């Protein structure tokens, strides 16, 4: 996955496009990723979910969440969520 903290969205799109082209050329259509995995970024940009959805991703796993939000979700068994970008932020 791309750096979310300091990259412009054009660079994110370019990076994913080059990666998708490489995967298609080497593995065919079955090599297209459908799930994103952010191993250890330092926070998440508000547009990341929107960009990945527009690129055809069906889901996203990420490594960092606010500790209070994570504790609440863990306690209420609501760890799964739908992340949608907000145009108002």
Automatic annotation (TrEMBL):
A Pfam short name: Glyco_hydro_38N
Q: Which GO terms describe its molecular function?
A: alpha-mannosidase activity
Cross-referenced Gene3D superfamilies, in alphabetical order?
Answer: Glycoside hydrolase 38, N terminal domain
Query: Alphabetically, which GO biological process terms does the record hold?
Result: mannose metabolic process
GO CC annotations on file: lysosome
Glycoside hydrolase family 38 N-terminal domain ranges (all copies): 1-86
What is the designated name of this protein? Glycoside hydrolase family 38 N-terminal domain-containing protein
Native source species: Rotaria magnacalcarata
């Amino acid at each position: 996955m791309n750096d979310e903290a300091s990259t412009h969205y054009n660079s994110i799109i370019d990076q994913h496009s080059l990666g998708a082209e490489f995967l298609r050329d080497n593995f065919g259509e079955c090599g297209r990723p459908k799930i994103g995995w952010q191993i250890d970024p330092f926070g998440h940009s508000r547009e990341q979910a929107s960009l990945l959805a527009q690129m055809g991703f069906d889901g996203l796993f990420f490594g960092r969440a606010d500790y209070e939000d994570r504790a609440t979700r863990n306690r209420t068994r609501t760890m799964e969520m739908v992340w949608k970008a907000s145009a108002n932020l």
